[in-house]
Specification:
- The chain has 470 residues and is an alpha+beta fold.
- It contains 15 helices and 13 strands.
Length: 470
Amino acid sequence: MKTLSHNLNIIHFPLTDFHNRLQQWYARHGRKDLPWRNLARDGSQSYEIYISEIMLQQTQVMRVLRDFYFPFLQRFPNLYVIANATQQEILMMWQGLGYYTRARNLHATAQICVQQYGGKLPKDKENLRKLPGIGAYSAGAIACFGFGESVSFVDSNIKRVFSRLFALSNPTKAQLENLAARLLDRHKSFEYNQALLDIGAMLCVVKPHCSLCPLISFCKGRFSPQQYPIKIQKHREILYLNLFIITFSKSKQHFIVLQAPTQEIPAYTCDSKQTNKKRQSNLYAGLYNLPILYTNPVARPHAIYSIGSFKHAYTKYTITAEVIYKQCEDKHEAMVILESMDYQFAFNYPKSTDSPTIQSIHADTTIIKQMHKPNSKQHYATNSTIESTLDSSLQSHNAIQSQNTHIQTLTNINNFHDSIDSPQKCNITASKQSKKYIVVKLQNLASLPLSNLSHKALKLAATQFQIFKQ
C-alpha cells in the first residue's frame, strides 16, 4: 500500500479528463434539487448555506431536509435574529438534531458576525475558520457554495474518494488538503466540489458501487476498495446511567420533575494507577433533562419500577440508559425521592471479584422520610410552564453513610459521572455543587428543549403509560 509523499507526484491522469467526467456525471446524476444548492453564490444567501452545512455535519441529508432546515430558517431568518435570541430558543428549534454544541456555536457565531461583520458571514476561509463551530471543511464549503470562491476542501466522503482513487492507505489531513487543492477545477469549483461530495455519499460508500462511478478507470484502488483508507477503530467510552421519570398529580393535572439546565456539566476525574483523566462535558448545557445518575451496571437502583432500557451513541460515548419510573403521591414525596438520589453511591471496588453490597435507599421511603427535614428551600418560579424550582439542601450525610461501609457518599446527581475504563480500580471523585429541579406540567413538555436522552426515555414511557401519550 502507498502513502502520499510530500511531492505529490501521484496524479496519473489528465486533469481535464478528470474534471470533464465529474462535471458530466454531476449534470446527469448530482443532487441538484437540494434547496441549498439552488441559492445565489454572491454572498447574499450565504447564511442559508451556513445553516445547511452546520446541520449536515452530523445528520443525514433527508432528515435535515424533512424536519429541520426550513422551520429553523423561518424562525431564525438571519444572523441578527439568532444573535438576539436566547440560547434556549435556539436549542428548542434544534431539538431532535442532537449534537447541541452546534446550536450553541451558531449563537456565538451570530453574535460575533453582528459585532464584527455587520451581521454577515466573512467570505474567506481564513476568517470563517475563526468562528465557533466552523472547521476547515465547513469554511471551504461556505466560501465555495455561499460566496462563489474557487476553494477546495476535504470531508470524510472526499477523503474516501481520494484514498481509493490513488490507493492511499493512511493519508494525513494535510496531505489530502494539498492534493485537493491540486485537483480543484477552478473554473467550475461549485459543480466540481458538489460532484465529489455526491460521489462520496452515493457511490464511493463503505461498500462502493464502483461500476457506476465515472472515475473508475482512474481509480487505483478499484480492485480492493475496502483497503482504502485503513479504517481506524474509534474507542467509545462506555457509560451506564439511570434516567428517572418522577411524576405526581394535583388537581387532575399531571406533573413531572426535570433537572434544570446548567451552563455546563462539571468536570469529573477518575484517578487510578492506570487512569488519570479529567474531562468536561457540555452535552446537556442549556437543555432540560430527566434526573440523571451516572453509574456502573451493578449500582443500578432496583426498588423503583424499571420500565426498560435503551442505547444511545455520541461521538465519544456509548450510553446504556435504564429508565426508572415512580408515580409519587405529591410534590413532597418527589422531593424525598430526589434527595435520596443525591446520596447514590460511588464504589471503591475491592480487588476480589465480589461485588460490593448495594442497599437502595429507594426501597423504604419511610426511612427516607424520617431522615428528611422539611426545611428545604422551595423557590417558586413565575414562568407559567414551570410550577416551581426546588433547591434541595443535602442533609443526613452521616445517617446515609453509616448504611454501608462499602460506599462513598456523593452529594449531587449532576456530579456523578462514572468512568468505567477500569471499573475495578477507579475511584470516582466529584466537587460539591447545589442542584435545582423544576416541576413542569406534562402537557407543557413540548415547549421546553429536552435532551435526546430524555426524549427517548419519555418515548419509551409512552409505550406503557397513557399519561405520557399527551
